[in-house]
Design goal:
The complex is a heterodimer of chains A (358) and B (515). With 358 residues, chain A is mainly alpha-helical. Helices cover 72% and strands 3% of the residues of chain A. Chain A is built from 14 helices and 4 strands. With 515 residues, chain B is of the alpha/beta class. Chain B has 3 domains: 5-241, 3-Layer(aba) Sandwich (Rossmann fold), CATH 3.40.50; 247-336 and 422-515, Rossmann fold (3-Layer(aba) Sandwich), CATH 3.40.50; 346-420, no CATH class. The chains are: A mainly alpha (358), B alpha/beta (515). The complex binds adenosine-5'-triphosphate and magnesium ion.
Amino acid sequence: MSSLTKRDISVGMVLLQLRTVIALVLLTAVFTVLVQSSRGINFLHPLNLITISKHVAITGIMAIGMTFVIITGGIDLSVGSIVGLVGMIAGGLIHEGLVLNIFGITIYFHVWVIILICLVLGVLMGGVNGLLITRLNVAPFIGTLGMMYIARGFANIRSGGATFPNLQGKAELGNQGFPILGAGKIIGIPLSIWLMILLLLVTLYVSRKTPLGRHIYAIGGNKRAAELSGVQVKSITTIVYMFSGFCSALVGLIIASQLVAAHPATGESYEMNAIAAAVLGGTSLAGGIGTVGGTIIGAFVIGVLSDGLVMLGVSEFWQNVIKGLVILAAVILDQTQQSMNARSTEAKDKKSQKESAA
Amino acid sequence: MDDSVILRAENIRKVYPGTVALKGVDFNVYKGKVNVLVGENGAGKSTLMKILSGVETPTSGRFFLGEEELNHLTPKSAAEKGIGIIYQELNLFPNMSVAENIFTNREIMKNPGWIDHKTQEEKTKVLLKRLEQDIDPKEMVRNLKVGQQQVVEIAKALAEDVNILIMDEPTSALSKAEVDVLFKIIDELKTAGVSIIYISHRLEELIQIGDYITVLRDGSLITEKPMEEVNLQWIVSSMVGGDSGKIFHSGDRNIGEILLEVKNLGLRGATEEPLLKDVSFSVRKGEVLGIYGLLGAGRSETLETIMGLHEDAAGEILLDGEPLGPPHIRTRIRKGIALVPEDRQREGLVQTMSVSHNLTLAGLWRIVKKKFHINRENESGSVEKMFKGMSIKASTPFVSITSLSGGNQQKVVFGKSLLTNPKVLLLDEPTRGVDVGAKGEIFNIMNDLARDGLAIVLVTSELKEIMAICDRVIILSKGNVTGEFDKDSMTEEALVNASAVGHMTTSQRMKGRVS
Ligand SMILES: Nc1ncnc2c1ncn2[C@@H]1O[C@H](COP(=O)(O)OP(=O)(O)OP(=O)(O)O)[C@@H](O)[C@H]1O
Ligand SMILES: [Mg+2]
């Protein structure tokens, strides 16, 4: 009946659909040339790529959690503060231990226990976000904004604004080994990158192949229809915020471990990087649309951009301007995609009409 | 045929990615007449209307208003030229009041910059009175049922000063009494010289109201004729092309023991008057129970309560003699209750997902392996079964649900509920916007399901459907059961009269007509 099939889609369309990948390739190419010519450094050197990926992992892991939140039609502004607070809790537990005044004793935990405590803390804070949003009907923007201030406040309260330095731990206390998370490597690749890859694979599976994933998309697309189809809207939304809290806590641990220190201001404005990565990767803020794969590519775009600009010696102020422009360009391109799509099929149809007439 | 053509479309072609919706269609709109447009689901009716009202641009083709050629039509310029449209998929703002919706974009201003809400509400009241509906102008549209929203859409179109009024399935959720009111208004509009384009799948309505009929099939024009020259048989056969499709066969069904029992349902709404006062009934295995009533009778609320949507509902619901337990939709679905909701856009479909994912959404738990892995073969198997069984028209199951025509979207909603393997099927206007052929198929499916021992509760505003398939029918009015009829005592008149009990305005109207 209709002569138009999927294969007829023009080259232009394919380019548009892969726009984030293409942006990434272009950026990398541009920086390779510029960095080589102005600094004489090989941008594509494996060591440099690993450094960039290490930075990307920080944004990427948070952005994976953020992607699911945005797919449900929400937003999580508290992730940066959770990063900061978790770092401080970990730092405090290693540095000072848990002081129980009533008994006059101090408990020093094993590093694994500390990591576990921190991850649970992240999940709990996400859970509070979820409960605020689903049970008390607070708008996601407001609920997580509140959590953002609260978590940041506690991060400062924990140390009175000071930094916990030297988190190597002490042999006599049995709490050594924390820096491994940040400095450890498997086949020359830092653990944080492996963690991002692992998280990506797991979430790819969950989002494509499990009812949970399907339900998350359904909630964002049409909450009421999802509910009437038996989707547990409230619990699943809460789980999604818990997962975002988990990702942030993981990032908080990684950063504290990399720096071997915890500072209460760590992670400030990271939520914006996570949101930007998700949006660059094609996640729609209206909910229902997005993929974690796209988000990771988006995180790489941001990572390559920032590191490339730093290597070129562009001032921090200009870096921000350029980042903003790239994000805007990507989103505007997204808007044009639909009308381009329609126009290309119409043009095609006109051509085939003419051919059949001739 | 000496009527003058006011709007003329020539050789309109419209291509969407993957489908050619219109293949060079000519269409004439006669001045001061009701121009009826029919065709199967996906024939291209709505697409043509969207082009005439400036929502979509045609790929090629031209159209003329009188002698003037219309180029680059936008919704705004179409409105300026006096072309108004009531969309098939309701297009109101749920977060605004009825009055605000009616005056969107044409707000009545008090001093510059201030909306005169009072005047707007008064005018709205007058409009709704004309439509014989007591909807509060201040009510939020989100609280209205589909039929009431349709009334508001009609009121909105009436508030505009139009020369040409397009009505794309305006009555699909309206009962007979409400349709009669609309037809009276259409007559008034005609007298005032307004030309009307009318689309509906209720063919009797078309014959009653139409002056000219145009038939579309698969994006092509089949014929255009004055209505006097055609009959129902002709319409059906020219729509489907030759063989007149599957005709509904009402087979013998064995009616078994009671499966679903509903006792003293009560439900309070936002207003003082409860939505449901005291509703009790039971349905047996293999039985099709119809529920008929007017807008606001509580039909949808009854089904929603059984499904578990209303946590604060009173009363008792028994399935197989066992209480259903707390209102929890997921558990009830798994116990075998399924609902086809009335409002497919708001309650039935997830617009961001594909046809296939929409179909399997409610029944995913049945096709997963080890409780979490979605098995691709099982999923595409189920999807394929529904595509065949419901004859859904889509290029592939992976296209976005929004690219389907209205009737095909409705079939997806129906298919979704079947894939949960229900014991009790609650159907709220399941054939809304579905063409005759597919309607017959849906009825056959219902019939087969009932024969397999399902209990079916059917809410429909079409009397014909009730008469055709229901073994028994109860009438709701203002939240009470006001009548029960079995196959022998079921007559259209009896149903209409029972549905009017308690509706003062409506019953007065009915009396007025009889005398
Ligand atoms: N946005 C879109 N993208 C792709 N295809 C579309 C889009 N809108 C409509 N179509 C296709 O165009 C065809 C005509 O659709 P249209 O909505 O005009 O049908 P219709 O005659 O109004 O049917 P119904 O009686 O079911 O409302 C269908 O095959 C439909 O799938
Ligand atoms: Mg239509």
